[in-house]
Amino acid sequence: MNNKPKIYSAEIYFFLFFGLFHMHRIWGLIDRESYSRFWLSVMENRGWFYFALAGLLSAFCIMGMVIFFKNRGRNYWWRWIYIFGGGYLLFDLFAILIRLEVWQKLLYWMFDTSNPFWNILWGTFVGLGAFSAAIGLSIAKKLRQQSSSPASE
Fold it and tell me: Is residue 79 within 8 Å of residue 15, measured between CB atoms?
């Protein structure tokens, strides 16, 4: 009997999506002005793209938390990211939605193109994205092995 928890294909999409989402910030390292202008506009104008993206991000976070709690006591290490990363992101999205003043100040600081920490800040997000994508690829490999092993039949 296989005692390992099931790996869900949705977990691959979670990590690959967040990997690509964070790695898109390479744009901010190449062209600060247009990157900052675009994302501040998205957050301030709150059009269909803002709500679609916030909805997708929230859905992925909630899905990850459901997977974590469904497998409580026998989770893989990466599922803790669903709790801590997902919890943080849900807070972030909520703080942006209600325009929490301290959060808005933080965001304007982050998107200030003269910020001396710009490259460190956005470079860290790019690195986080690469790490997330690598986890997604690793999970894909594990899922393929899980599917092809005789114990899974």
Answer: no
